[in-house]
Amino acid sequence: MYKQLIMPLVATSAIASYCLLYADNTINVPSQYRTANAQIAHDQAKEKNWVHANQDYPRNVWFIMFWSIDNGDYQGQGHVAIAFVDNNGVMQIHDSEVHRNARQPYASLEEVSNWFGSVGTRLTFLGWSEGVDNVKIIDKIKAETKTTIEKTDKKKEQLKIFGYPFFLNKVVGLNKNIFYKIDFG
Questions:
Q1: Which of 14, 72, 121, 155 fits a disulfide with 99 by CB distance 3.0 to 4.6 angstroms?
Q2: CA 170 → CA 160, 161, 163, 177, distances in Å?
Q3: Dist. CA 128–CA 20, nearest whole Å
Q4: Helix residue ranges, H only, 76-179
Q5: Which run of H or of E encompasses 48?
């Protein structure tokens, strides 16, 4: 389970072939941390152990995705995007192509590969990342924090019968003789 450290401004406009500029702008990366291309940004994030070379994406937080570009004019430059996966596993991937209005957000890795493949560019997915260009946008929630969140969520669910959240931290009369104080403190 991850928490969002920086909420990206996904609706940032973009320029064709400037995927890293788009990703950096969505999270407002300071100029001194910006790298020359997505492949360098990937390599730096990998050195920080932020890159996860799998498809076990975090849910309900925005995260970074990296690809290598394996042929053509941009070979060795890499590709980067920002993505979100909801509780139902529905994915949306945003990059400079999406935000220069060339297409709608991608819904899968296959859509990204097909889009670039349509002009002859081969990509290899390198993994998802907790950040880019020295800016971490998500962080893993510690076990004790996760347990506290789960307990709070369970308590909130149980309290719905008492009208939560409307009676939060107030005395609630269930009948003439019994009163309960709902308190999360």
A1: 14
A2: 14, 15, 11, 16
A3: 14
A4: 109-117, 143-159
A5: none
**Three-state secondary structure call for residue 132:** strand
CA nearest neighbour of 3 among 146, 120, 123, 115: 146
Is residue 78 within 8 Å of 68, Cβ to Cβ? yes
User: What is the per-residue pLDDT across 83-116, written as a single tens digit (0 to 9) for each?
Assistant: 999 999 999 999 999 999 999 999 999 999 999 9
- What type of residue sits at position 82? I
Instruction: List pLDDT tens digits, range 57-78.
Output: 999 999 999 999 999 999 999 9
CA dist 11 and 41 (Å) reads 21
Q: What is the dihedral of CA 86, 108, 125, 2, to 10 degrees?
A: 0
In Å, how far from its chain's centre is CA 150? 21
Domains of the chain: 2-140 (3.90.1720), 143-181 (no CATH)
